[in-house]
Amino acid sequence: MRRISLAWLLVFALVWTVLAAPRFDAWVAGAIAVLTGVILHTGLGGRQGARIHLRGLVRFVPFFLNQSVRGGLDVAFRALHPARPLDPTFIPFRTGLPEGPARVFFVNCISLLPGTFSAQFHDRDLRVHLLTDDAEGARRLETLERKVAGLFGVQVDESKEGTPADPALSGNGGQRHG
Amino acid sequence: MTESLLELVTGALVLAGAFFFLAGTAGLLRFPDVYCRLHALTKADNLGLGLISLGLALQAPDWTTRIQILLIWLLALAAAATVCHLLARSSLREGVPAVGVDTEVDP
Amino acid sequence: MDDFLLVVAAFLILNVGAGLIRVARGPSPADRMLAAQLFGTTGVAILLVLAQATHTPGLRDVALVFALLAVVVSVAFVKRGWVRAARSLEEESDGEAGP
Fold first, then answer.
1. CB A107 within 8 A of CB A101
2. Distance CA C24, CA C59 (A)
């Protein structure tokens, strides 16, 4: 049985206060919602050492916003361009982030950054869809990986040897027509 | 004076946001397969929502509303990333063909 | 300002309408489910704009529910909508791509 953290209880209560506005009659439902939230959060492993580092956050937010703008511009350009310039492919990617919140956060961020989204995710191995097949794709993923590591204060395990545990992720889907 | 300037900034941000929604829909209709279409919706629409949220936050009456708008945007981001991954994964599992990718192992 | 925002909201609704062409055409079930993503994000934007334009703060709560519903609907679809096909596929090749 995991212990429920007081800090998270406060966070959930704060979120409720913002969402419901400080109305006292809303706190009957609020108390139920906050308690359910904290219990689910704890039960789903929300406390496995996820500590956001402030310095990492200060670096991550501008990076994320900048990349979001570039991702939006990039896809808008391709969607509105008469020739619709696309060169999509799947690439395998092995993450060096430790198991837990950092890795899950990383996988989710991939889907919000320019030209990439995660399509499969098994242990350390990802299958990432690229809108344009270029060397940039993998490099951008590594940059994001470092930023996420900084955000959670964890180390990226650089040793990426070994074969993927799931053969579907080893990348035979990356072969190209013509 | 400051108020009308603020309205101008809001107007510009909201218009820019609307443009990205238009681009997202264009991509949804024009891109060749479900995977590329997911790109159009997740990236363009989220940027559009971010710009519109920012523009509206400038007009918000108080800080509670501003934080509320920020929370809604963050939640929409998390939702979009989750939905994108879920749809892509199940499309792959169901063998929905992808343009430019040979999903069969060569003979 | 309010009139301007109402025009923007109308434009976004037209956008969703145009997106429905993709839902009608498909071809794969996932293409149709893109509607969840479309309604999720665009719906949230429309509601936020309307909340401001009509001075109805309650609409922001609806926006919040929209974002959540997009996820719930997608999970339901992935778990149930394709469940029959998924079951037969899982037996031969779990998680593998390819027709």
1. no
2. 28
In a domain, A1, yes or no: no
Q: Which residues of B touch A114 (CB under 8 A)?
A: 43
Which secondary structure element, helix H or strand E, spans residue A151, and what is its range?
Answer: helix A136-152
User: Number of A:C CB contacts under 8 A?
Assistant: 15
Asked if pLDDT for residue A55 goes beyond 70, the answer is: yes
pLDDT at C65: 86
Helices (H) and strands (E) counted in chain B, each on its own, are: 4, 0
Which three-class secondary structure string do you get for A122-143? ECCEEEEEECECCCHHHHHHHH
Domains in chain A, number: 2
Q: In chain C, which residues have their Cβ closer than 8 Å to the Cβ of B34?
A: 28, 30-31, 34
CB contact under 8 A, B101 and A18: no
Domain that holds residue A77: 54-169
pTM of the model: 0.81
Question: Which stretch of A23-27, A38-42, B36-40, C88-92 has the lowest confidence by average pLDDT?
Answer: C88-92
> Is B23 an 8 Å CB contact of chain C?
no
> Between residues A79 and A137, which one has the greater pLDDT?
A79
